[in-house]
Every structure is written in C-alpha cells, then in structure tokens.
C-alpha cells in the first residue's frame, strides 16, 4: 500500500498494481453483495419462511422430519382463505385501519399547530416546550397502562375500540410534533414573511404557505403515526377484550387459536399480509423520517 | 386568555396597531399549543401521577374506591421473589440486547449505506422486523421456537449439532436467550437507520482524503466513521435500551413469563398483577420502577442529540 505514494512506477509494476487493485475491487464487490444478501436474509428470513408456511398443507407442516423451509407437498391457499372467511381477521384489520386513520387525523389537528407554535412563533418557552414534548415521547405505555385503564373505565369506554382512539394520540402526538418541528425548521422563514408582507395575516400565511409546503412532511407523519398505532400492543391488550372490538396486534396472537392450538398457517399468512404493506410504505418515507428526527434536534 | 397572552416583546407597538387576533403571534402561539398541552396533561401527566397515587392505595379492578394503604403494596411487592427475578431479568435483557443491537446495528448500517444494485429491496427487507407490529412478528417466532416443529431445531438436528429438540421456550435459560434474540432482531433495523443518519452526514471529502492518504477500510472505520458518528451510536444504544426496557409484547407473547415466572420483566409482571390479577396498586408499584432509569436514558439521549449539532 505504501507504493501508492511512490513516484511514477515501472510499466510492469504499474500493471501489477492495476491488477492488484482490480482484484481487490472484485473481492470488495463480492463482499458487499454477500453482506447485503446475508443482512436481508437475517432480517426478512422469518417472513419468507412465514410465506411458505402459510401456504403449506397440514400434513406437510405437522411432520417434524419435513424440510421446514420448502414445500414437501403441493402448496395450498386454503389457510389464507380460511383467515378471511372463518376467522375474525377481517374485523381486526378493519378496526386497525379505522382506528389508525382517526388517530392520524387527531394527531395532525393537534400536532401541526403545536409544532408551528414551537418552531416558528418564537416564544420564550419554545425551547423548553420542545424538550418537554421529547420527554413525553419517551414516557412508555408500560408505565401508564394501569392508570389509563382506570381512566378508560371512568370514560365508559372499556371493551370498546373507541378507547384506543382516545388514548393512542398520547403515543403519536409527541413524536409527530417532534418530527414536524424538524420539518418546519427546514422550511425557509422568508416564504411566510413574504406572504405576510403581501397582506396575509400570520394565520393566513400559516394556512396558505406553510401547510402546503409542509405537505411532504405531513405525509411522512401520517405514515409514521399509523405504523405506531398498528404496532401498539399493551393498551389494546389492557382495554379491549371482546373479539369484535380487537385490533390486529392483539386479535391475531389471542384469537387465531382453538384450545391451545394456533391456526399456524393462517397466523403466518396474516403476519405477512400485515407486515409487507406497512414496511413498503414506510420504506418510501425512510429518508424523510431520518431528516425529520435530526432536524428537530437542531436549534433553528 | 387572549388578554393574558398579549405579546409583550419589543414588537408590541406594532402588534397593537393590528387589531386582528390572527396576527398576534403570542395569541396564536398559545391557541396553537393549548389543545396539545391540555391533551398531554390529561392523558399522560394525570395518569402518571395517578399511577403514583395508585401505588399507595388498595385500588383493585373489583373495588375501585380509593383508600390510602401507605406502603403495604411496596411491602407485598418486595416480599415476592418474582419481582426481584423480573427486576434482574429486565436489566439482563436490556444490557445484553443493547450491546448486541448497537454492534449489529452498526454492521447493518454499514451494509445499507454501501453502494450496490438492489439497495431498495435490501432496505425494505431489512426494515421488516421493525415496522411489523411487534406482537405479530413475535407470534411468528413462537413457531420458529416451537417445541416439536421448530425449524431452527430442524437445522441443528440435521447438522448433527443436537440430538433432541432444544425446547427453547421450555427452559429458563433458553427462554431468556430466545427473548433477547427476538428483541435484538426487531430493534437492530431501528439502530441501523439511526446510525445510517450519522454515516451519511459525514462529508465525503474526509473519507476521500483519508483514502488518498492510504487509509484502508478498517482504519477509516475506526478513526473516522466511528468517532464522528459516536453521538448517533449513543442515541441508537439508548433507544434500543428504552424499547427493550419498557417492552411487554415480546415477553407476553413469547413466554408469558413461563416457565414458572422465570422470564418476567417489570412491565409484564406489572401487567400480570395489575390487569391479570386486578391488583392495580401492586401493578403500579412494579411499573414505577421503570421511571428513574427512563429519565436517565432520556437525559442522555438529549445530550447526545445536542452534541450532534457540533458536527
């Protein structure tokens, strides 16, 4: 390697060096692709395997000698059909969907103005308030679920999916506000100042210039907040027990079971059906989450 | 409300000239923030203090009337061996998971920022464990660790490494290893994404300059990348710790504390006592033990994030 710094090398030495670097480049590429494939398998292997298992015949699955990573008998979609026709899975999926959407709306209605207030309106308490929001984000459900379960009872919402609509924004609002503060700090101030010079009030400038420019960030927050509500477990487990009111994250582990035997294939299929769309949409916005999280921390 | 919030900054003279409320920053700042603050106080701050109050009460789900019970709950919790076991488990889970999450997260982050074809699909696959609802992915692992049909055991059997199945979830040690493995698998992508932010923010010319000076991959890794991304590595470590520390889903779904209450953590034991057994007071005492450590972690995260600005 020290040769790199030497003066012009002899022709054959140069050729040797060129080969050496070409070889090293090829090995480097092989290494990179090998590592990438290994990482993908380590992370997504269980999902690939779930897909195979979800379409296996009973006789194929319940034989400890059969290769668990491949079909030993023809695949079947019966268990996937069973999931949709004979279990409460469609109910769970629907509950997760509408709870998620309502929570997202509540989150935006609360979070966007709050973030604007903290990021832009320059009150003396803006800084501490931003930090307070961050701390609220770190208060975990496992600390609050007992007292919230009593509050849900007082509100008369126990065993109703509406309890989740009321409580889930405690998870989504702080983190979304934090993200939105980051996105807002990335927007140039001149734009709304120009709008105000042009005669809009502060409120008008907010609604007509800031909100439209913030739209990409808002979409990212929608995805993030929805993912959080879909993943939530402990509140859903503590507040809601009737089958018809459950969401995916509690319904699937507790209801797709007869006696103490899980409907394994249906269960694995449902896992893939839920996981893939969420990860797909999430991946589209990955870069934006990253910029949001870091920008929120930078004093603007 | 409006009067109390009138702008008192030097711009007051100008603000008074305008009569429309919509133009008063001070008023708007409050109006925009108040709904969120009220909501957070009502459903985060109040429950938090309620949890403290419950810890000193005899409230149960059957008899929700509040009676002061002093330290009775604390005594009963401390006299229970399961509590000490779950406290110990919580620490073991958190520390072991955190170390593994950071190391593997760093490795995964390096892979994800490398330049290769099909990067999008690899990122998508690598994110799956984190974006999937935790209860669902954990149920998948239930079967991967099944006593009879475990594919992991099948591989080990066919490699001749084990004679009989390991029975992962049936023995305390292997059950704990399983829980840690699932936590690590689930949180490594999050750590990788956080560390990726750091790697991508290093200006390219630093690495180029080092490369021209003859620094190899490992040299650049340990003398440029790791020092420059250390604040974000710290953030990913602390997030990993917090999410493991407070998580209940993995333990609840994977083992439910079994075999024989040996794998409970504070959160799951609090759930068993508070919701399962209906003894809200005891559950609250157990959950409160999460708080001091969370506060410490939050302060550390904030300091690490602040330090990032200087890069």
Principal-axes shape call of chain A: flat
Number of helices of chain A: 14
Strand content of chain B: under 5%
Rg of chain A, please?
26 Å
Name of the top-level CATH class of the largest domain in chain B: Mainly Alpha
- Under the CATH scheme, which architecture of the largest domain in chain B would be assigned? Orthogonal Bundle
The biggest beta sheet of chain B is recorded as: none
Structural category of chain A is mainly alpha
Question: Can you tell me about this structure?
Answer:
The complex is a heterodimer of chains A (300) and B (311). With 300 residues, chain A is an all-alpha fold. Chain A has two domains: 2-76, no CATH class; 87-295, MetI-like fold, CATH 1.10.3720. Chain A has 14 helices and two strands. A two-stranded antiparallel ribbon of chain A has the order 1-2. In chain A, helix 4 (89-120) runs antiparallel to helix 12 (248-255), helix 8 (169-186) packs across helix 10 and helix 8 (169-186) packs across helix 14 (286-295). Chain A is flat, with a radius of gyration of 26 Å. Chain B has 311 residues and is mainly α. Chain B has two domains: 12-55, no CATH class; 80-308, MetI-like fold. The model of chain B is unreliable at 1-8 (pLDDT under 50). At the A-B interface, helix 1, helix 4, helix 5, helix 6 and helix 8 of A face helix 2, helix 4, helix 5, helix 6 and helix 8 of B.
Q: How do you describe this structure in short?
A:
The complex is a heterodimer of chains A (300) and B (311). By secondary structure, chain A is mainly alpha-helical. Chain A is built from 14 helices and two strands; from the N terminus they run ααααααααααααββαα.
Features:
heterodimer, A: 300 residues, mainly alpha, MetI-like fold, 2 domains, two-stranded antiparallel sheet, 14 helices, 2 strands, 74% helix, 1% strand, flat, B: 311 residues, 0% strand, disordered N terminus
How is the topology of this model organized?
The complex is a heterodimer of chains A (300) and B (311).
Chain A: H1 11-54, H2 58-61, H3 78-86, H4 89-120, H5 126-138, H6 141-154, H7 162-167, H8 169-186, H9 190-197, H10 202-231, H11 234-239, H12 248-255, E1 257-258, E2 261-262, H13 264-284, H14 286-295
Antiparallel strand pairs in A: 1-2
Helix pairs in contact in A: 1-13, 3-13, 4-8, 4-10, 4-12, 5-8, 8-10, 8-14, 9-10, 10-14
Chain B: H1 12-17, H2 25-55, H3 72-78, H4 81-113, H5 119-131, H6 134-144, H7 151-158, H8 172-201, H9 204-212, H10 217-245, H11 249-254, H12 266-276, H13 280-288, H14 291-308
């Amino acid at each position: 390697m020290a040769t790199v710094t030497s003066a012009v090398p002899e022709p054959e030495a140069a050729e040797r060096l060129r080969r050496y670097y070409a070889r090293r480049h090829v090995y480097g590429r092989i290494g990179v692709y090998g590592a990438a494939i290994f990482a993908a398998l380590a992370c997504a292997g269980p999902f690939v395997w779930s897909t195979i298992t979800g379409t296996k015949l009973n006789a194929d699955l319940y034989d400890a000698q059969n290769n668990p990573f491949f079909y030993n008998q023809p695949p079947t979609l019966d268990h996937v059909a069973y999931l949709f026709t004979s279990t409460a899975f469609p109910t769970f999926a629907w509950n997760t969907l509408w709870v998620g959407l309502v929570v997202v709306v509540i989150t935006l209605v609360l979070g966007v103005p709050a973030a604007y207030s903290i990021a832009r309106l320059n009150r003396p308490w803006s800084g501490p308030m931003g930090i307070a929001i961050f701390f609220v984000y770190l208060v975990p459900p496992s600390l609050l679920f007992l007292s919230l379960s009593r509050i849900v009872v007082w509100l008369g919402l126990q065993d109703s999916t509406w309890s989740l609509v009321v409580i889930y924004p405690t998870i989504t609002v702080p983190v979304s506000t934090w993200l939105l503060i980051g996105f807002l700090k990335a927007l140039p101030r001149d734009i709304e100042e120009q709008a105000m010079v042009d005669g809009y009030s502060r409120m008008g400038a907010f609604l007509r210039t800031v909100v439209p420019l913030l739209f990409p960030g808002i979409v990212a927050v929608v995805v993030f907040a929805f993912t959080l509500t879909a993943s939530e477990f402990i509140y859903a487990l503590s507040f809601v027990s009737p089958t018809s009111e459950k969401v995916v994250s509690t319904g699937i582990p507790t209801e797709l079971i007869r006696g103490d035997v899980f409907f394994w294939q249906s269960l694995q299929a449902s896992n893939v059906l839920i996981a893939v769309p969420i990860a797909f949409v999430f991946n589209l916005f990955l870069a934006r989450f990253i910029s949001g999280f870091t920008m929120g921390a930078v004093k603007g | 409300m409006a009067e109390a919030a009138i702008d008192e900054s030097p711009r007051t003279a100008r603000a008074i000239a305008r009569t429309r409320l919509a133009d008063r920053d001070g008023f708007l700042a409050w109006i925009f923030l108040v709904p969120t603050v009220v909501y957070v106080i009502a459903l985060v701050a109040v429950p938090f203090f309620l949890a403290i109050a419950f810890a000193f009460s005899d409230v149960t789900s059957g008899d929700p009337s509040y009676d002061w019970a002093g330290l009775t709950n604390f005594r009963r919790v401390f006299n229970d061996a399961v509590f000490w076991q779950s406290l110990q488990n919580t620490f073991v889970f958190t520390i072991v998971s955190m170390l593994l999450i950071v190391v593997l997260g760093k490795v995964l982050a390096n892979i994800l920022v490398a330049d290769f074809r099909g990067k999008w699909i690899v990122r998508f696959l690598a994110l799956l464990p984190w974006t999937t609802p935790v209860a669902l992915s954990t149920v998948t692992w239930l079967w991967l660790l099944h006593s009879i049909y475990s594919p992991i055991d099948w591989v080990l059997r066919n490699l001749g490494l084990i004679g009989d199945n390991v029975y992962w979830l049936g023995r305390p040690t292997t059950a704990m290893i399983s829980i840690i493995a699932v936590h690590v698998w689930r949180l490594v992508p999050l750590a990788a994404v956080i560390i990726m932010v750091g790697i991508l923010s290093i200006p390219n010319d630093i690495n180029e300059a080092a490369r021209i000076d003859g620094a190899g991959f490992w040299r650049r890794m340990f003398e440029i990348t790791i020092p420059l991304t250390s604040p974000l590595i710290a953030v990913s470590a602390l997030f990993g710790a917090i999410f493991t520390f407070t998580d209940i889903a993995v333990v609840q779904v994977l083992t439910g504390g079994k075999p024989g209450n040996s794998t409970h953590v504070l959160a799951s034991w609090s759930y068993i006592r508070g919701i399962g057994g209906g003894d809200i007071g005891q559950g609250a005492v157990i959950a409160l033990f999460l708080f001091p450590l969370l506060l410490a972690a939050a302060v550390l995260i904030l300091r690490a994030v602040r330090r990032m600005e200087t890069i």
